[in-house]
Amino acid sequence: xxxxxxxxxxxxxxxxxxxxxxxxxxxxxxxxxxxxxxxxxxxxxxxxxxxxxxxxxxxxxxxxxxxxxxxxxxxxxxxxxxxxxxxxxxxxxxxxxxxxxxxxxxxxxxxxxxxxxxxxxxxxxxxxxxxxxxxxxxxxxxxxxxxxxxxxxxxxxxxxxxxxxxxxxxxxxxxxxxxxxxxxxxxxxxxxxxxx
Length: 196
Fold this sequence. Notes:
Radius of gyration: 17 Å
Number of strands: 0
Shape: globular
Distance between the termini: 24 Å
Oligomer: single chain
Helix content: 40-55%
Mean pLDDT: 90
Order of helices and strands: HHHHHHHHHHH
Low-confidence stretches: 1-8
């Protein structure tokens, strides 16, 4: 079980507890996905987009219940949860970028990844972590940033390191400062990072 978030303004419950899943829809989703053979779950399309990535790109057309059911099954296949497509994007990164207005989606996937001992400091393009990626995109992403940064390991240490340097030597804070200087509004992002 993932420890409770401690970030400013976040309530101390897991994403699953806050998603308000409809029990009947959840049961239907679990039944529907139970019919899929396990080997089909992690497979990707021609771009290596997994079923989870496609569901996120389509903004959860069947609701949180199908997200819950799919992630629940994928937790038994840890490599599938952490898979990357041809653009080197994971389901967690796509949830952050495609659904910043629904930060619980990214948090729910991150909670599941934590349950399978995922390394949240993995890098993407230019040595950027997910935190770098969010910080360079501006305040539209600050709520999902706060959800992720609030996560803690059972020993109390942050799951996401906000002090890592990318290949250019930039921390997430420096990346946000540069983005803000280039006309992307990062004022809330900067304020959030400084308070950490």
